[in-house]
């Protein structure tokens, strides 16, 4: 999503004052009982079974897609995080030390076996997994998922040309628990497991396709049901699950309540009676509910991090949720008027040089964000190719024929395609003016956009900023053709209040920056980028990822912005088992409350 800041003001300032003056009496009805938070410290207490835990959703985030095959415009992380609690993927990443691993006890399958020079993959499902209606989870359910994406790949939000499902020549079910994939060539096993097998999600074929219909007809029917948000909790279709949870409530407001799936056969059965995911329009409104005890697992805006000690006094722990992510402004290269501007490399470089990532991270995010250096997590790149340098940006623009009169907006005075001209498709006298569609609900994001706008204004670039709810921004900033009406609706887009893109363990770019990739929202297309991405897919050489990262960082296909922590979490001390996964997956089945004295284990 995104971040930014100046001074504490408005509702936040009032809440901080109330927090300071309000003492430590915090009531809550969300845990196993009402009253003050149990004073058990951060590690003491005895585990009890049962209770309800309420977790706050990000600002203006409302879960709106339940079908475990994501569709364009419905790819928000909180959608997939909830889906995976109902429908288990074969593999789930988890943090082990400083790295991410796909060798998790939560996995539905054993580790894959590669053979035939890495052109064949064999996967065996673990024993004993069943659907909530008692039917076993089998390779037929995996094949059902595969057939749906194979025959409807254009409608699948995870499709990249020549990758899954195109790169699988044959899906062979060996028996009820083992299947084999014949690939179209040899692949880097680490990449294929992390970025292809990670998608595989068995679906209940016996419940969703009992009449063995054509995959296109089935997919269309399932998609129709998936767009009926008000019926998610009552539709019989979504009641057959194999995960640890099932739906109790899914309101159109975005509030979701889950209860244990009593037929779940995995190793991590739920301890709680219920888990509730509560939406908020803004971070400020969530902060108010958090300090009054309305959520057990929430977050504080970075602007009030200095007051985190008060929450600790009330019986909370404060823990920033760091993500394996990057954050950026998307550029619509196919916009009819802004596209010709954004396709100029020098102009993108100038726009990047005018974003003061370090100051924004320090002042607006209060240290809870770090600069994004390129298309991979910052730790994988040695340096920032475009640190803040307004003078260099102005020189670049002047050298390519942009000039302002009386300190106003820059205009093209040397049209054409020469080395000192404005560039192809840019007319004489055209102003350097852009518009940005940014998500609402975050003071930090709003302040960040105003800071960038101010920096651009000083350089003679006009930036108009419009704010809309997150789902609106996600549904608008999607890949488009120049002739489509929707392509005129946005020029730049921002949905990075909590990070724009969260990677699987292998942070390659086939989903983001490859030509035609599903999350390549701005339609970036560059042959060298495609070549370097393929190198990461085919080769196990660690240098392949570095070469890709450094090259794409210099090409600036998006504008890199500070990458915040997903959130600065505030969690009741008596709520335990919370693991803040860097990929933003959730495991509330591991959560439990503790209390003083003996309890039922």
Automatic annotation (TrEMBL):
It is found in: Cell envelope. One of its GO terms (molecular function) is peptide transmembrane transporter activity. It comes from Streptomyces iranensis. Keywords: Signal, Transport. InterPro entries: Peptide/Ni-bd, SBP_5, SBP_5_dom. Belongs to the bacterial solute-binding protein 5 family. PROSITE patterns: PROKAR_LIPOPROTEIN (PS51257). CDD domains: PBP2_thermophilic_Hb8_like. Residues 107-507 form the Solute-binding protein family domain. PANTHER family: PERIPLASMIC BINDING COMPONENT OF ABC TRANSPORTER (PTHR30290), PERIPLASMIC OLIGOPEPTIDE-BINDING PROTEIN-RELATED (PTHR30290:SF10). This is Peptide-binding transport protein. It comes from the Bacteria. GO terms for biological process: peptide transport. Its main location: other. One of its GO terms (cellular component) is cell envelope.
């Amino acid at each position: 999503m995104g971040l930014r800041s100046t001074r504490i003001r408005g509702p936040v300032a009032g809440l901080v004052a109330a927090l300071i003056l309000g003492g430590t009496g915090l009531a809550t009805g969300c845990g196993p009982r009402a009253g003050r938070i149990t004073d058990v410290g951060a590690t003491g207490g005895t585990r009890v079974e049962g209770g309800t835990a309420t977790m706050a959703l990000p600002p203006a985030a409302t879960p709106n897609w339940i079908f475990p095959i994501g569709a364009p415009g419905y790819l928000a992380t909180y959608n997939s995080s909830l889906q995976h609690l109902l429908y288990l993927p074969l593999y789930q990443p988890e943090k082990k030390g400083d790295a991410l691993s796909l060798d998790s006890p939560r996995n539905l399958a054993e580790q894959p076996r590669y053979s035939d020079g890495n052109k064949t993959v064999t996967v065996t499902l673990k024993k004993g997994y069943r659907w909530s209606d008692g039917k076993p989870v089998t390779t037929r359910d995996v094949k059902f998922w595969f057939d749906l994406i194979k025959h409807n790949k254009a409608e699948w939000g995870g499709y990249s040309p020549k990758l899954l499902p195109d790169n699988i020549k044959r899906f062979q079910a060996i028996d009820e628990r083992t299947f084999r994939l014949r690939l179209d060539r040899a692949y880097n096993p680490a990449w294929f497991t992390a970025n292809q097998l990670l998608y595989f999600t068995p679906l209940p074929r016996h419940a969703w396709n009992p009449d063995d219909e054509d995959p296109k007809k089935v997919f269309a029917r399932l998609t129709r049901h998936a767009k009926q948000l008000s019926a998610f909790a009552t539709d019989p279709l979504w009641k057959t699950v194999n995960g640890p949870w099932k739906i109790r409530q899914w309101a159109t407001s975005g509030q979701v309540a889950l209860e244990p799936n009593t037929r779940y056969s995995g190793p991590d059965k739920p301890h709680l009676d219920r888990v509730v995911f509560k939406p908020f329009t803004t971070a400020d409104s969530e902060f108010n509910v958090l300090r009054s005890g309305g959520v057990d697992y929430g977050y504080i805006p970075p602007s009030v991090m200095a007051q985190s000690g008060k929450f600790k006094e009330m019986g909370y722990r404060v823990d920033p949720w760091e993500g394996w992510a990057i954050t950026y402004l998307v550029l619509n290269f196919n916009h009819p008027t802004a596209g010709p501007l954004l396709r100029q490399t020098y102009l993108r470089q100038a726009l990047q040089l005018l974003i003061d990532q370090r100051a924004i991270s320090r002042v607006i995010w209060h240290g809870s964000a770090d600069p994004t250096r390129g298309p991979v997590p910052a730790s994988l790149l040695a340096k920032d190719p475009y640190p803040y340098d307004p003078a260099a940006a102005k020189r670049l623009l002047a050298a390519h024929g942009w000039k302002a009169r009386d300190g106003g907006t820059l205009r093209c005075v040397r049209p054409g395609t020469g080395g000192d001209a404005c560039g192809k498709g840019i007319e004489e006298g055209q102003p350097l003016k852009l518009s940005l569609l940014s998500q609402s609900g975050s003071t930090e994001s709003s302040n960040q956009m105003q800071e960038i706008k101010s920096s651009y204004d000083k350089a003679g670039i006009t930036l108009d900023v419009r704010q809309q709810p997150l789902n609106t921004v996600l549904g608008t900033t999607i890949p488009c053709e120049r002739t489509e009406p929707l392509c005129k609706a946005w020029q730049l887009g921002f949905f990075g209040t909590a990070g724009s893109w969260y990677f699987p363990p292998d942070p390659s770019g086939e989903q983001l920056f490859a030509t035609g990739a599903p999350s390549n929202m701005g339609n970036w297309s560059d042959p060298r980028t495609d070549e370097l991405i393929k190198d990461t897919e085919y080769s196990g050489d660690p240098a392949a990822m570095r070469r890709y990262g450094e090259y794409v960082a210099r090409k600036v296909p998006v504008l890199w912005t500070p990458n915040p922590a997903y959130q600065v979490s505030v969690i009741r001390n008596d709520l335990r088992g919370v693991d803040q996964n860097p990929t933003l997956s959730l495991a509330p089945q591991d959560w439990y409350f503790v209390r003083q004295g003996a309890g039922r284990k």
